[in-house]
């Protein structure tokens, strides 16, 4: 078996020291490594061209069926009153809530205003709640986003900043991609390069499984335009309270 020119025989042990007996073992190893390193393959969410050919109702119906099968395989008794509604509950949650940000139809329409007050300093919306989902483990990423921009003549309704964060969060994500997607969207709609996004989040795949580290959090940042200047960046960090 060859994969990227590497022979299976040259990888005789995985990280736990176990022998790799089959292609499936090697694939599991590579899949684990991809997940644990939280590597993303692109800045765009990897969606198929036909992603929205099925409507939401049909998606819910199909996911319900498949999730019931997962529960069945786990040996759960789906006639139990507590469990029997779970497949549909999960399916609706995936399509209508947790992953609703996959569908461009749910993207918040930006409402822009003229900058009539001539406010030309930095605007920071801080501590925006982030509820996202790790795309490697399908468990939550929970944290805060801080977004900032310097107006080029347009200003945006404040709650729209929260909604833009939430839209991109409601996808299977990696935190780096989420950060970049929010920054790119803000640059585009505000017609300025002067944008910054900082996210500080806990990954439940890190805290509740794997390395089981409850305390650690992950910080990612995108600084563009004037935020690449040290003084501007320090001003932002002062506002969000991460420097003295
Ligand atoms: Zn994960």
From TrEMBL:
InterPro entries: GTP-CH-I_C/QueF, GTP-CH-I_N, GTP_CycHdrlase_I, GTP_CycHdrlase_I_CS, GTP_CycHdrlase_I_dom. Residues 63-240 form the GTP cyclohydrolase I domain. It catalyses: GTP + H2O = 7,8-dihydroneopterin 3'-triphosphate + formate + H(+). Residues 1-19 have a biased composition (Polar residues). Pathway: Cofactor biosynthesis; 7,8-dihydroneopterin triphosphate biosynthesis; 7,8-dihydroneopterin triphosphate from GTP: step 1/1. The keyword Cell division does not apply. Pfam families: GTP_cyclohydroI. Its EC number is 3.5.4.16. Keywords: GTP-binding, Hydrolase, Metal-binding, Nucleotide-binding, One-carbon metabolism, Zinc. Coiled coil: none annotated. One of its GO terms (cellular component) is cytoplasm. One of its GO terms (molecular function) is zinc ion binding. Residues 1-23 are annotated as: Disordered. GO terms for biological process: one-carbon metabolic process; tetrahydrobiopterin biosynthetic process; tetrahydrofolate biosynthetic process. It is an enzyme of class 3 (hydrolase). Zn(2+) binds at residues 134, 137, 205. Homopolymer. Belongs to the GTP cyclohydrolase I family. This is GTP cyclohydrolase 1. It comes from Rudanella paleaurantiibacter. The gene is folE.
């Amino acid at each position: 078996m060859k994969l990227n020119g590497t022979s299976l025989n040259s990888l005789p042990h995985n990280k736990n020291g176990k022998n790799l007996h089959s292609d499936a073992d090697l694939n599991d190893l590579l899949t684990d490594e991809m997940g644990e390193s939280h590597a993303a393959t692109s800045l765009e969410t990897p969606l198929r061209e036909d992603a929205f050919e099925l409507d939401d109702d049909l998606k819910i119906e199909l996911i319900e069926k498949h999730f019931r099968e997962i529960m069945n395989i786990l040996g759960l008794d789906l006639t139990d009153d507590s469990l029997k509604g779970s497949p549909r509950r999960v399916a609706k949650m995936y399509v209508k809530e947790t992953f609703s940000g996959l569908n461009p139809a749910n993207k918040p329409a930006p409402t822009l205003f003229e900058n009539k007050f001539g406010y030309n300093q930095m605007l920071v919306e801080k501590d925006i709640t982030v509820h996202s989902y790790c795309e490697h483990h399908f468990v939550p990423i929970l944290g805060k986003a801080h977004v900032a921009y310097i107006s080029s003549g347009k200003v945006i309704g404040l709650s729209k900043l929260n909604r833009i964060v939430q839209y991109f969060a409601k996808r299977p994500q990696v935190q780096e991609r989420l950060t970049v997607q929010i920054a790119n969207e803000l640059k585009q709609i505000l017609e300025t390069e002067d944008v910054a996004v900082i996210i500080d989040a806990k990954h439940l795949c890190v805290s509740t499984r794997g390395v089981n580290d409850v305390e650690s959090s992950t910080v990612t940042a995108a600084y563009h335009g004037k935020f690449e200047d040290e003084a501007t960046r320090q001003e932002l960090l002062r506002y969000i309270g991460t420097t003295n």
